[in-house]
Amino acid sequence: MALDPATTSTTFDRYIEELRALWKDSNDANLPFKVKAAMERMLASTSPDDPWMAEIIRDAQPSRELYRDPEYGFIQMGHVHPQGHGNLPHDHGPCWVVYGAYQGLTEISLYERTDDGKNAEKADLHTREVHKLGPGVVYPYLTGQIHSTHAAETPAVVFRFLSADLNKILRRRYNAETGEVSLIEPQP
Ligand SMILES: [Fe+2]
User: Fold this and answer.
1) Which of the ends of the chain has fewer CB neighbours closer than 10 A, N or C?
2) pTM
């Protein structure tokens, strides 16, 4: 559910305006890092009492679409993750995302494949790095980067920017223990 326009504050509106301005040059290789900077500014300038942020925190929905751009197709998601929330390692196919935390602590593990990548059904994953996303911390995750998320201190209020609708693309999920690779098919 999108945010109620009546309660959308200027910090969210300004952020979306910034994203739209950035998207005019959508071939810019630095776009994920520019979105990161814009999200950092948005997080730093928003008070938990600002009506739009207060609504997200109060409703505590695990996942909601806050904004979908009618022209460029990018999406801004908002998440409030409870204790124990996490997912298996996955990639986002040809898309990239930007994760930023507002409250709580979310750990995002990054993996590298230690096999030759030739077997489509099996992958050997090795944890390369763990990003700790406390309040105001934002990281981009680029095309093909395998990662998983874990809500370490909750409720974890997380903003997730998607360069395109992930439900419309083929992605991969990985079982780090068995190496099994499963496909996440696009939704019709
Ligand atoms: Fe992800």
Assistant:
1) C
2) 0.92
